Structures are given as C-alpha cells and as structure tokens.
Task: inverse folding
C-alpha cells in the first residue's frame, strides 16, 4: 500500500464515522451508532498496525510520510498538509487508536441507556480524528489544528449532559482554561517561526545544530520552550492550569478514560517529546518543566487522598501521573516520559473504565463512601481494577513499576536531575499507593454500605468486560517493553530495554552524571526504596480502611482543619476565584460602567447629535413649497452667471 | 424707410426690454400664488428669451436664433398643456388653484 492510502484510511475512517453518526444524530439506535463508530476506530487501529509494521525489520525506513497538499503558500511560510509516522508517533498512534477502539467498544454498553447515543459516538469519532491530526501532523500548525480540535471535542463531551448546569459549566471551564494554555502554545509557534523560518518538525530539528545551549532566561529558544510549555500545562492539566481536569469528570466515564486519562491530556507530553532536541538547548526551561511536573505530581496526589468521588480520585491521580511525565521530560528522560505515557494510558484507561463499570452497576452512584463490598457482585471488574491498582502503585512486574521507576531513577541520576526531584517523586508515589489502596478498599472490599434491597450491583455485558480484560492484560505486561538494564542482566536471556533501543536517535536525552553512569548498586537501592515505600504506604492504607475502619476517622480528627483543607482541594478553585476571576470581573465591570458608558458611548452620542443637528437644519430647505424651490433655482442661476461673467 | 425717428433703436434696447420682461416674469413666478398667473408669468419669461433670440438674429444676420424661437414656442405650448392639466387636477380636488396645494405632493 502506498503511504498516501494508508494515511487516508487511517485519518478518514473516524471522520466518516463522525459524518455518519453526526448526520443521523437524533437516532436512538445505539447499536448501529456504536458499531459504526467502533468499526471506524478499529479500521484506524488496523491501518496504524500496517503503517507501524513498515518501520520494523532490516533496512526499514525510520519514518513513512505522505504529503497531501499545500494548505497555505506564502512568501516566507508554506504549510503542507502532510503526515508522518516515525518512531515517536508510531507508539502514540498505536496507543491512541488501540485504547480508543477499546473505549469505543466499552461505550456501546455504557451508553446503551442514553438519550442521544448517535451524537455521543459522532463526537467520539471526531475526537479520534483530531487526535490523529495532532499526532501525525508533521508540522506545528497541523498539530495545533488537532490540538484545538481535541479541545473542542473535550468541551462537547464534558458538557454532553448539558441539561445539568454544573456539567455544562465544567465543559466551559475546561474550554476557557485550555484557551489560556493555547495562547501560550500559539506564541511558542510564533517564536519558533521567527527563529527557524519553518514549522516542520524535522526542519526545525535539523536547523538546531546552528544554535548552542542557552544559559539565561530570555534567549529565544528558552522563550519558545516556555511558551510551548504553557500550552502543555493547559492541555495536560499541570499546575497552575490543572483545575479543569477534575471538573471534566462531569462527562460520560468512557470519555474520561479516553480523553481525560489516556490520550488528549498526554498531548502536552507528546509535544515536548517531539521537540526534545529544542528543549535540550534550554536547560532553564527544562528546569521549569521538571519543577512544575514535580509540584503537580505531589500536589494532585495529596488532593487525591481526601476525595470521595470515585472519578475525582482517578482524575487527581491522572493529574499526578502527568506530573511524573513532565518531571521525566524536565530531567531529560524523554524516553521515560514516553514509556510512562503508554503504561499510564493502559492502566488509567483500565481504571476509568472499571469505575465506569462500577458506576453503571451501581445505578450512577459515584460516592465511594456509599459503595463497599463490590468484589462479591462484580468479580471481573474487581479483578481487572486490582491489576490496574498494583500497576499504578508500582509493584513489579506490572507496567507502572517499570515506567515510574525509570522516571525516578533519571530524576535522581540525570545531569539535570536532583535528589529533590527524586524525593518529590518518591513521596508522590507513596501518596499514590495510599489513595489508590483507599479507593480499592472503599469500593470493592469489606462490607457493603448501600442498601442491598434498593441497589443491585451487577456486572455489565461483554462489550464492557472485553475492553477491561484487554487493558488489564496490557497493564500487566506493558512494562516489559522497557526493562531496565540492571534487571535485564539478571533475567534469563538478558532482555534489553526495547523501548530505549527503539527511540534511540529519534529523541534527545540528557546523559547521566559521571558517577551515576555505572552506579548499578545505587539503582538497585533506589528501586528497593521506592517499591518498599509504596508497598508500606499501601499496607498502611490497607490497615486503615480494611483492618480497622475506625482508624481514618480517628486519624482525621487529629488534624480537622488540614483534612478539610485537603478535602476542599487545597482551596485552589476558591483562590483562583477570589484572586483572578473576581478581580477580572470587577475590572470588566468598571470598564463597562466608566470607560464604556462615560467615554465611548458619549463620544458616539456627540457624533450622532452633530449629524442629527445638521440634518434637521438642512431639511427645512426641503419644505415642499414650490416657489421656494424656484427661488433656489433663480439664485443658483444668478450665482452661476455671476461666476461665468465675473 | 423710417425718417427722423426720435431715437435709433439698437440691440441694447431690445436686450433691455427683454431683461425687464424676464425680471417681471420671474417676480410673477416667485411671488404670485395663483397657478394660472404663475404660468402666465412663465410664458412671459419664455417670450423675453424669444425676444433676445430674435434681436441677436436680426443684428447678426444669422437665422439660427429664429429657428431656436420655434423650438421654445413648441416647448412652451407643451409646458402650458401639462401645467394646465395639473392646475385642473388641483382645482378639482381643492376648488382653488393656489400653489400651496402643491405642497401635498411632497413625499
């Protein structure tokens, strides 16, 4: 197959699915809508496999690309609608279409009782199309088009049940917050264009050899990186723009799994990985990325400790895990960031879908305080969620262990890392283990806290269980693509780090400090510390919530104010409301009441009055009196005569 | 052959008479309220112009001016027909031919 054909099918399948369902959006036939949408996603997935398989083998190209047409051709700037699958986007496109297909399938069961399934599946397919544009576009502008497109779909899907005012508001919050980030992204694109005269990724990177590492804060590359990172903080929910993501849980749960956990929110990380050679030249910008990542990882994990909505816990967990990815990018471990992006997509999509299954089974109940004992009613959901749980808290050999440990190791050992980054990551990991165990315990274990006569939890149908099982398998084995060398050496057959090998040459990497390069013992020690701390934290949570359920209340009563502070999400929303939004509203109101009413309005009124005054004077000339007109003619004739004869 | 005339009648005399007639006609148009009288005044103005044409034609030995006069007389006849028709219409409606009734035509 020619690359053009591959890319056409890959991209157009979801778009056709969108048109099909979008044109019959009133239909309630969820089976037809779901089948078409899932089929479209599956076709994309199949095409991705075809495309990526081209990159394997001896003498295989490092990238396949297709140029469709020139979108805009100007003197200085020419934008092509062209796409590329290289070693970075190959991984991403497989994750997006693969996990996407599973989540489409899950949605068929989940949305079976909904009023507007066609509209839902249309949006979902449109999202997939835009996400593919974002991933496959070979220049920043194509990426930006997809970037905005997924933002739109995110907005539409968060507010999918818009008749609930709170959910509609959550959609708007997501959109507005993202707009702030997008402005930064756009500025970054401008700076890059000014610097390199092109927006094509490959061309930008090939021109970088003319630049040297910048040391200050105001260099053009540092500036570009910081602007791009602002965009990333919006889309990927980092401090200070993360506030929209927890609210985005108002959307249907499969949407949370697809858009707000597995794919769209990782776009910021993906963008930084794509431009990793650029970021390498701006150590200060990378330090900002790492610091923000570490702060986010820690802060979101802490907030997650005291949330009672099953999806909110997972949302803060997502924010926290995204923080890890940025931490990895910031210390120069772009490969580790990509690795964690993929494993996170597996286990977080799994847990979101699991929570969807729980919510579905519990008749739309989301408060984990009203659950408990669901293991008995939903054995498969429990088993798959269990795998997601041990994957995220980092118990070997599940996926999360490998990726998170790699990040922690680089945070410690990289030339641009520090033990503080490592410590923040470690505490974050311990906190993650605690809140995830709490979530498991309150949802699935111990006695039920709901009225078994009124609520009858039940396992869902196969369309929801199959994705859970597939994702559980991926969460269990996904880590093996990135086995660290120290572990590989003692295993039979000495498996190497496949992912590192795969990405070598496609992305940049910061070398380790000299003494860490061969510090195998150190790596083992750190690995031991992080696993045992996470394990200890999980055991503590287990003893808190399973062995002695009265203990959390006693513990909380020791610090009532602190607990309330954490439960209220560290008051960040309130802080933004009081310090930014309200002053902005006040300023706007002041501008309206004084500047607009007193100056702008008055100025226009003066002009209007003037015109009206002239008009009302002039209209007396046209009285309708015939003799007056005759007089004008006579006077005019006299004037002309006077002028001619002089 | 005229003999011992009191004064020699020259071009300027004709022009002076014509100007006087024109001014009288114009005053009539501007000041009288009766439509019929106004039309008579217009006729007066037109004939003042005709007199000028004739005078120039005579003193310059050029017949063009005389030809022009026929045109003016034709136009004047047409104008009188239209004007009278208007006057009759106004009269039918208001039982008077005062010019102020024409103000009703204002849009």
Result:
């Amino acid at each position: 197959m020619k690359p053009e054909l591959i890319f056409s099918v890959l991209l157009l399948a979801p778009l056709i699915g969108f048109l099909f369902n979008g044109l019959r959006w009133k239909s309630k036939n969820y089976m037809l809508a779901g089948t078409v949408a899932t089929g479209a996603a599956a076709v994309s997935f199949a095409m991705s496999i075809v495309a990526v398989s081209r990159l394997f083998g001896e003498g295989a190209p490092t990238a396949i690309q297709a140029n469709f047409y020139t979108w805009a051709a100007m003197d200085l700037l020419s934008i092509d609608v062209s796409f590329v699958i290289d070693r970075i986007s190959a991984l991403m496109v497989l994750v997006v279409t693969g996990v996407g297909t599973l989540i489409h399938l899950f949605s068929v069961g989940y949305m079976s009782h909904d009023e507007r399934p066609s509209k839902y599946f249309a949006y979902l397919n449109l999202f997939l199309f835009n996400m593919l544009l974002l991933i496959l576009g070979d220049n920043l502008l194509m990426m930006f088009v997809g970037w905005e497109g997924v933002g739109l779909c995110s907005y539409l899907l968060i507010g999918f049940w818009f008749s609930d005012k709170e959910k509609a508001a959550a959609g708007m919050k997501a959109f507005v917050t993202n707009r702030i980030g997008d402005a930064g992204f756009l500025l970054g694109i401008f700076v890059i264009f000014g610097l390199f005269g092109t927006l094509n990724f490959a061309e930008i990177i090939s021109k970088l050899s003319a630049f040297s590492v910048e040391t200050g804060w105001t260099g053009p590359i540092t500036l570009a990186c910081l602007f791009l990172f602002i965009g990333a903080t919006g889309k990927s929910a980092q401090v200070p723009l993360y506030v929209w993501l927890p609210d985005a849980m108002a959307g249907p749960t499969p949407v949370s799994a697809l858009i707000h956990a597995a794919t769209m929110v990782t776009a910021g990380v993906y963008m930084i990985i794509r431009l990793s050679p650029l970021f390498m030249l701006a150590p200060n910008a990378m330090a900002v990325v790492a610091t923000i990542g570490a702060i986010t990882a820690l802060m979101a994990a802490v907030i997650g400790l005291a949330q009672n909505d099953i999806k909110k816990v997972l949302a803060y967990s997502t924010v926290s895990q995204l923080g890890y990815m940025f931490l990895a990018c910031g210390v120069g471990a772009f490969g580790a960031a990509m690795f964690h992006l993929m494993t996170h997509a597996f286990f977080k999509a799994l847990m979101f879908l699991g929570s969807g299954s729980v919510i579905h089974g519990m008749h739309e109940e989301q408060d984990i305080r009203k659950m408990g004992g669901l293991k008995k009613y939903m054995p498969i959901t429990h088993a798959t969620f269990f795998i997601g749980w041990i994957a995220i808290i980092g118990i070997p050999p599940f996926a999360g262990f490998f990726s998170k440990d790699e990040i922690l190791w680089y945070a410690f050992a990289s030339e641009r890392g520090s033990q503080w980054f490592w410590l923040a990551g470690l505490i974050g990991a311990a906190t993650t283990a605690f809140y995830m165990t709490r979530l498991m315990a309150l949802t699935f274990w111990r006695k039920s806290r709901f009225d078994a006569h009124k609520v009858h939890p039940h396992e869902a149908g196969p369309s929801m269980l199959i994705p859970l099982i597939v994702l559980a398998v991926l969460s269990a084995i996904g880590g093996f693509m990135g086995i660290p060398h120290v572990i590989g050496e003692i295993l039979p057959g000495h498996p190497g780090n496949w992912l590192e090998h795969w990405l070598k040459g496609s992305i940049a990497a910061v070398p380790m400090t000299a003494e860490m390069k061969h510090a195998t013992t150190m790596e083992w020690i750190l690995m031991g510390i992080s696993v045992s701390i996470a394990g200890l934290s999980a055991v503590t949570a287990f003893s808190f919530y399973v062995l002695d359920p009265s203990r959390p209340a006693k513990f909380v009563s020791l610090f009532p104010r602190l607990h309330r502070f954490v439960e209220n999400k560290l008051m960040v929303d309130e802080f933004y409301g009081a310090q930014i939004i309200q002053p902005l509203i006040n300023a706007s109101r002041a501008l309206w009441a004084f500047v607009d009413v007193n100056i702008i309005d008055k100025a226009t009124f003066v002009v209007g009055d003037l015109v009206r005054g002239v008009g009302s004077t002039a209209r007396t000339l046209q009285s309708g009196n015939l003799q007056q007109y005759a007089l004008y003619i006579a006077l005019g004739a006299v004037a002309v005569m006077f002028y001619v004869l002089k | 052959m005229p003999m011992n005339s009191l004064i020699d009648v020259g071009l300027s005399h004709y022009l002076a008479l014509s100007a006087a007639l024109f001014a009288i006609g114009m005053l009539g148009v501007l000041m009288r309220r009766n439509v019929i009288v106004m039309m008579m005044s217009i006729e007066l103005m037109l004939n003042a112009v005709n007199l000028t044409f004739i005078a120039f034609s005579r003193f310059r030995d050029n017949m063009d001016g005389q030809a022009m006069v026929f045109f003016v007389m034709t136009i004047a006849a047409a104008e009188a027909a239209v004007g009278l028709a208007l006057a009759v219409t106004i009269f039918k409606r208001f039982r008077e031919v005062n010019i102020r009734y024409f103000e009703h035509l204002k849009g």
About this structure: Residues 71 and 104 of chain B are 33 Å apart (CA to CA). Chain B has one domain: 11-105. The radius of gyration of chain B is 18 Å. The mean pLDDT of chain B is 89.
